[in-house]
Amino acid sequence: MAAVDTAALERAFIGELERTPQLSGVYVGSDDGSFFFVTREDDGYLVKAIDVDGDDRVVELRRVAPDGVVGPPELVFDDTYDPRERPWFQNASVDGPREVEWTAPYVFFTSSQLGVSTSVAARTADGRLVVVGADIELGSLSGFLDTLRIGPTGRAVIVDQANTVIAHPDSDLVQDRSIGGTATVSIADLDDPRARAAIGSLISAGATPDRRSMDFDTPQGAGQAAFRTLEVGRETWTVAVYAERGALVQGLTDARSDERLLRSEERRVGKECRSRWSPEH
pTM of this prediction? Predict the structure, then answer.
């Protein structure tokens, strides 16, 4: 990206990360393999630039402290990253410039964390295809769910169309590290019996997630769940809010009142998810 003002890109990307805490990284890739990336670190930001000029390829890293002080550049000679091979680039560039795309969960190259990416393609004045994208680590979505208070025992979980767990209040349950790497977790393998039973009740009934409430049973007791879908680009996520039967308001035993309260919590979670992670953001 020799013709690009990378200093201006760096300022813009750091500014976006500062304004949007849900994002873990922002980047742009080109159809020649060039790439510019800014991601968070504990002590500031990591900047990665890949410049491609014909057969020449230069990969450079540098760090930016929270006070804006830029560290010395570091050349990397064994880097194999190619933006054109990543889901965020491929999804956005299938048919050229188009609307915002979202990926299914995958493992990020730099952080080795599970996450989803949003991206959009565009054409430069000279006809080159570029894709601008941003990463959201699943841990940030799970952290958001952990802040929700849904009655005394209520929780929320998000799954995708393949019933892969996108987010859960306990972020450690969302990633499987038992195989020597990082992998996604299906709802059937999630170590939360109520979440499994809640989504399982929907799957067993063959029901449409939107505007449905379902009863379910676990060894820990009876429960109830409500569901709502989120359209995330071409992906459809299901938000499930679940709790012990009658636990949302202690002492309340009327089933219809229980359902109304559970549904109100489900709508609140769905609204928050849309506002925080909709493509417009």
Answer: 0.69
